[in-house]
Structures are given as structure tokens and as C-alpha cells.
Amino acid sequence: MVAQFDQPQGSSDGGAIMLKAAERRLGIIFALADGMKDERQAGKVRHELDELLMQRVMAIACGYEDANDAARLASDPVHKLLVGRDPKKGEDLASQPTLSRFENSVDRKELFTMIEALAETVIERHRQRLHGRARRITIDLDPTDDPTHGQQQLSFFNGHYDSYCYLPMVGFLTFNHEPEQYLVTAVLRAAMRRGRWVRWGF
């Protein structure tokens, strides 16, 4: 038996199909996209907002954090499938400039709307799981350091962590007396704030 991996439609991200299955069940991407407004000229739109968001999120989940990776992923059959396109005949995915414009077009109000949508999706999932019988809900909010490198915007020195970093706030929920904690939200914050200030600001 001879196995070959030189076909033009090959991909090394086959496992991402499981992510797509989870997303189809949870609907998080579409919930996030609903909170965004599309101000582009309709006649020039090739990629819908939910497609751009799906492409970017799935790429990051597969380890492609840099938008420049979009150039080599544009025709990847698995990534096209993740966005809902035919793996072979479907149109290529968005380019790096398109993704960069997309990311920079989101304003603060939209970000907070997306944060709320994510939280509501998680809460609704557990409401269904527990059949509405959650007698006790514990909310755990914690700041955590995210070290930065180079001249990144809003990167400041934090004395407590002794590094240049961001200080995102992450929120977890615990239902009843279950030992598991479930991530419900994450808010990126500058590191110049102390943890207690971030907590009240959240």
C-alpha cells in the first residue's frame, strides 16, 4: 500500500471538521455575526460577514493566528468546507487585506454586543442541559496576564506580572455544585489597570 499526500486538494486540517460540527450545534459564529453591521457597498461584497468571521475563527482555532496565512488557506478544501463552500469548486476564501479590513471595521459597541451574544449562547446551552433547574450559579471573574512582544497597541508594563502584557478579564460560570467551570466571556484590557479595577470595570 502506498499513501500519497501530494494531491492539489489536500489539507492538513481535517480535524477542523469536528469544530464545524460543534459550531453547527452551538451556533456561536452566527450569533456573533448578528451583532455586526455591514456598511460595505452591496455590489462589491464577495464574502458575507458570517463567512469572514467563520474563516477567521476557524483559522485561529487551527493554529493560523496571522491573517497573512489567508493567502495559502484561501484554496484549502477543508477551510472552504468550514465556511460552507464546495471544497473543490467553491470560490476561494477571503484574502489577507479583506480580513484585515474586516477586523478593523468592528467598533466597540459591536464588540460588546458580540460579548453578550457569546455569554447568552453559553447560558442557553446550560439552561437546556439542566432543564432550567439551576438552583445556584457562581460567577468567577479573574484578570490574567497575556504577555506581548513588540509594539502592540495598548501593551503596557504591569509591575505585578513584571512584563509588558495585556490584562484580559475572563469570566466563568459554575452551576449548582458541579466541579466544572464554563468559560462565558473574555474581555481584552490594557495592562495598566490593577486587577481589582478591571474587576469593577467589567
How is this structure best described in words?
The protein has about 200 residues and is α+β, with helices and mostly antiparallel strands. The chain has 2 domains: about 15-105, no CATH class; about 135-200, no CATH class. The protein is about 40% helix and about 15% strand. The protein has 8 helices and 6 strands; from the N terminus they run αααααααββββββα. The protein has helices spanning about 15-25, 30-35, 50-60, 70-75, 75-80, 95-105, 110-130, 195-200; strands at about 135-145, 145, 155-160, 165, 170-175, 180-185. The strands form 2 sheets. Strands 1-5-6 form a 3-stranded antiparallel sheet. A 3-stranded antiparallel sheet has the order 2-4-3, with no helix packed on it. A hairpin with a 6-residue loop joins β5 (about 170-175) and β6 (about 180-185). The termini are far apart. Residues about 195-200 have low confidence and may be disordered.
Topology at a glance:
Blueprint: H1 16-26, H2 28-33, H3 49-61, H4 70-73, H5 77-82, H6 96-104, H7 108-129, E1 137-143, E2 146-147, E3 156-158, E4 163-166, E5 169-175, E6 182-187, H8 195-201
Antiparallel strand pairs: 1-5, 2-4, 3-4, 5-6
